[in-house]
UniProtKB/TrEMBL annotation:
It comes from Flavobacterium commune. Gene3D superfamilies: Aspartate Aminotransferase, domain 1, Type I PLP-dependent aspartate aminotransferase-like (Major domain). Its cofactor is pyridoxal 5'-phosphate. InterPro entries: Aminotransferase_I/II_large, Kynurenine-oxoglutarate_AT, PyrdxlP-dep_Trfase, PyrdxlP-dep_Trfase_major, PyrdxlP-dep_Trfase_small. The keyword Transferase applies. One of its GO terms (cellular component) is cytoplasm. Pfam families: Aminotran_1_2 (PF00155). GO terms for molecular function: kynurenine-oxoglutarate transaminase activity; pyridoxal phosphate binding. Keywords: Aminotransferase, Pyridoxal phosphate, Transferase. CDD domains: AAT_like. This is Methionine aminotransferase.
Amino acid sequence: MSKLPNTITSIFTVMSKMAAEYNAINLSQGFPNFPIDEKLTAIVAQLANEDIHQYTPMAGYPPLLSKIASLVAYSYQRTVQAETEILVTTGATQGIFTSIQALVESEDEVIILDPSYDSYEAPILLCNAKPVRVALNDDYTPNWENIEAACSAKTKMIIINNPHNPTGKILNEADFEALETLFEKFPKIILLSDEVYEYITFEEKHISIHTRELLRNRAVVASSFGKTFHITGWKIGYLVAPEHLMKEIKKVHQFLVFSVNSLSQAAISDYLDIVSVDEIGSFYQQKRDYFRQLLSKSRFKLMPCEGTYFQVVSYEAISNENDVDFCKHLIIEHGVAAIPISNFYEKGKDLHLIRFCFAKDNATLEEAARRLYKI
Ligand code: PMP
Ligand code: GLN
């Protein structure tokens, strides 16, 4: 007996493991390989000698909660109540899981867009609820007509991911207006907005649910310090939600984790006094542009990338293999690991597309490009 009979080991685990086995350059799983900010390591070193090693309050270390409120106010001009509307989580993964467990009931339907990041489906199934996939358009914009057609009295939640992993697409003003119209028609539906790449956007700025008055009082927003501050291994993020939703989320959180690692909460709290989020987009834009330039004369075709630290490429000119086999051969024969995009689709749709993570130092990107250029 399995509660998740069709759930397989995450593709990120599979590809990172294989990259390690074959000593390949790992551009698969999304994590940076450059050193973290020295100011942050200095804070950790100092805090390690202080009295910060016991449980924090359940919802989070109070100074961190108030600094998250300030960050949301600074970034999105939204006032949130630190005590009632914010929850520090063990990464966005736990925030997403906990929100779904707390808010989705048995027999409910939850709309997920296709392709999607892999963290949404299993928590829905564990609620004995039904994930309903709605395909994005070919250019990865949401198809609001089809989303509306999928909504019914059974629909409890819609999950969006903006900026979008893996396609790098960001939602625009017209998308939010369509979403607002939809939410007016279906007053019971709540939104889970996965915004872990909120600060990693390029030409266009990301529009957050935090700025949408008509949506934010019915929405849970998931953020990740792992992505924002290049510390994915710390596993720390936060949720923002109106009190009536947060109350339910905290009921689950207290039995899933109770409280998040105290040292990392205190370190990020101090770090937020001295760090700016304003440069993150341009920092990664340089990496994106450099990686795209390095690949421009290869046989891989570069797809657009508006946000996230992922570059999707087509290998249509190189091979007819399915994308999973292509990625395996890429590791074994060429020493570079990527993620096959078919894994993000409910039915494994294979468009001969793969995803590279460009959150790497320049030497790594150059060596990867040198290998990819030869193919
Ligand atoms: N959502 C998306 C879209 C992601 O790409 C990731 C991976 N970082 C997560 C959620 C999980 O974030 P975290 O590492 O903070 O758990
Ligand atoms: N979010 C990361 C990615 O998309 C993976 C995180 C994980 O392995 N769970 O690559």
